[in-house]
Design a protein that fits this description.
The protein is of the alpha/beta class and about 300 residues long. It has one domain: Ribokinase (UDP-N-acetylmuramoyl-L-alanine:D-glutamate ligase, 3-Layer(aba) Sandwich). Helix content is about 40%, strand content about 30%. The protein is built from ten helices and 14 strands. It has helices spanning about 40-50, 65-75, 115-130, 150-160, 170-180, 190-195, 200-215, 255-265, 270-285, 295-300, and strands at about 10-15, 20-25, 30-40, 55-60, 80-85, 90-95, 100-105, 135, 165, 180-185, 215-225, 225-235, 235-240, 305-310. The chain has a ten-stranded mixed beta sheet with strand order 5-4-1-8-9-10-11-12-13-14, with helices on both faces. Strand 12 (about 225-235) and strand 13 form a beta hairpin. The longest helix is centred in the middle third of the chain and has 15 residues, at about 115-130. It is globular and about 55 Å long.
Length: about 300
């Protein structure tokens, strides 16, 4: 796989960026405070950047917390297309020790008003022109924007001939499927919760691949925690088995997979190589602290160890 400055930017629709404040006690021998930009879209963007596919983060940023979050992203070299909004960007304050991690403060973002929604939508469409792929990430807070935005975006991006990778669930997933998407990355836990799977068995997962395809996703990848991932790509079914690695931080593994799938589409990788890269990115993410920042060289080194099996 070759990447570099000639790879075009990848749009990442980020409706709810997040400022994370981590208080580290005892992990380095002294107390430390770290500020990071976070949220699903940001974690996807960070993995894309590691894979040398420059992300274009498009999202709303508001208040002091929004200004800090936006500044952190720009300092990291991320192309940020920001819509100024009235409501403050959400904040998560966590305390971490060697033994445990727990939340101290978790604020919520406010709803976007009609003008802010229009500005965000227009900014996303404009940024999507000419990109090789766009990623739709969701909002954990359904009050921020209506689910119908995802249907409109998926439909309009398809009209612009831009492949769409979505990592969504619930009403936001249902809406995006109505608009039509190129690739859906979703977990079996989310599919069970949303009624696409009766249980989290492989048989139920294989049936869900067909159901989701019929509902509007050309290709589907289902992550299954420690179990092999399942995929339907180009009309063919696959099982992808990753090496079992010790888990340091399980959060963000799915977002790393989503980013790798988008990078693979941008780079024109074949189905098997696409799955190897995505599963390796998810596996490497769990071995480190921090979300979405797995080293691309480690991901590439691990990718050949991922066993991809044809199921047809």
């Amino acid at each position: 796989m070759t990447t570099g400055p000639d790879v075009p930017g990848v749009l990442v629709f980020t409706p709810t960026p997040l400022l994370t404040v981590s208080i580290e006690r005892g992990t380095t021998g002294s107390e430390e405070v770290h500020l990071h930009a976070g949220g699903q879209g940001v974690w996807v963007a960070r993995m894309l950047r590691s894979l040398e596919c420059p992300p274009i983060v498009c999202g709303p940023f508001g208040g002091e917390t929004g200004a800090v979050t936006e500044d952190i992203l720009r300092r990291e070299g991320v192309d940020v297309r920001a819509v100024p909004v009235v409501a403050a960007t959400a904040v998560s304050v966590e305390e971490n020790t060697e033994a445990e991690q727990h939340s101290l403060v978790h604020t919520e973002p406010g709803a976007l008003d009609r003008h802010e929604l229009d500005d965000l939508y227009g900014l996303a469409l404009g940024a999507a022109v000419g990109v090789p792929v766009a990623v739709l990430t969701g909002s954990a807070w359904p009050n921020v924007l209506p689910a119908s935005i995802f249907q409109r975006l998926a439909s309009d991006l398809r009209e612009l001939k831009v492949p769409v990778v979505a990592d969504l669930s619930g009403d936001q997933l249902q809406a995006a499927l109505e608009g039509g998407i190129t690739m859906l990355k979703v977990s079996d836990e989310e599919l069970e919760r949303d009624g696409f799977m009766d249980d989290r068995s492989e048989q139920a997962g294989l049936a869900a691949l067909d159901t989701i395809h019929e509902r509007g996703a050309s290709d589907v990848v289902i992550s299954r925690g420690g179990e092999p991932a399942l995929a339907l790509i180009g009309g063919r079914r696959f099982r992808a088995v990753a090496p079992s690695l010790e888990i340091v931080e399980s959060r963000g593994s799915g977002d790393s997979m989503t980013a790798a799938l988008a990078a693979a589409i941008a780079l024109g990788l074949a189905a098997e190589d696409m799955l190897r890269l995505a599963v390796a990115a998810g596996a490497v993410n769990v071995t480190r602290h921090g979300l979405g920042g797995a080293d691309a060289n480690v991901v590439r080194d691990l990718a050949p160890t991922v066993e991809v099996q044809r199921l047809d």
